[in-house]
Write a structure and sequence with these properties.
Elements: E1 2-3, E2 12-14, E3 20-29, E4 37-44, E5 50-55, E6 60-63, E7 67-76, E8 80-85, E9 91-95, H1 96-99, E10 111-117, E11 120-125, E12 129-137, E13 150-155, E14 160-164, E15 172-176, E16 182-185
Antiparallel strand pairs: 1-6, 2-3, 2-6, 3-4, 4-5, 7-8, 7-10, 8-9, 10-11, 12-13, 12-15, 13-14, 15-16
């Protein structure tokens, strides 16, 4: 059993509806006279849906033990994402809608962790941040602006993120896979 106060990003457990979910973000809140709550953003591992909810600190859940095996993303045929196990070279696929937002980061030959529950491949786990190449970006125009000015950029995977003005097509950037935010320019 795991208490909601012990949640960390990446924790996988069965929620009150008996669904297997993974913690994306969690925050502990306490307002003066109000009762403390743990606000969480959860990823449903079966459907890929994001759920935002809150729990009391004393709420207990069954932690799910999953095995991780390294996989190589090969390609997508529009409905299924195809992976290859790096140890056994076995090929398997998973529906794109089940991957949720993780599908937006997949590029050919990318290494990910395949998550197994009862020896059944059911989802993937991406690293916390990924280095990707910028395919297109709006021209950066300096002018009468103050503060942190950003522009839209499209990555090679098709994902769009906000980046600083100095980022150009062909640059490699580090992106947070949980928040879809630009972190920094990647070191060459």
């Amino acid at each position: 059993m795991i208490l909601s106060t012990n949640f960390n990003p990446g924790t996988i457990f069965k929620n009150e509806n008996n669904e297997i979910v993974q913690v994306v973000t969690c925050q502990h809140h306490r307002k003066s006279q109000a009762r403390a709550v743990v606000r969480v953003k959860l990823l449903n591992m079966e459907t890929g849906a994001i759920i935002e909810t809150s729990y009391r600190p004393e709420d207990k859940f069954h932690e799910v033990s999953v095995q991780k095996r390294e996989k190589t993303y090969m390609y997508s045929d529009g409905k299924l994402a195809h992976f290859m196990d790096t140890q056994s070279y076995e090929q398997m696929e998973i529906p794109l809608e089940k991957l949720g937002d993780a599908a937006k980061f997949l590029v050919e030959n990318m290494l990910v962790h395949g998550l197994y529950l009862n020896d059944k491949f059911f989802n993937i786990q991406l690293p916390a941040n990924i280095i990707m190449e910028v395919a297109e970006s709006e021209p950066g125009v300096r002018g009468d602006s103050t503060g942190n000015v950003t522009k839209n950029a499209k990555l090679v995977s098709g994902l769009e993120v906000k980046v600083p003005l100095f980022i150009n097509p062909g640059d490699k950037i580090k992106v947070d896979t949980r928040t879809f935010e630009y972190l920094e320019r990647a070191k060459e």
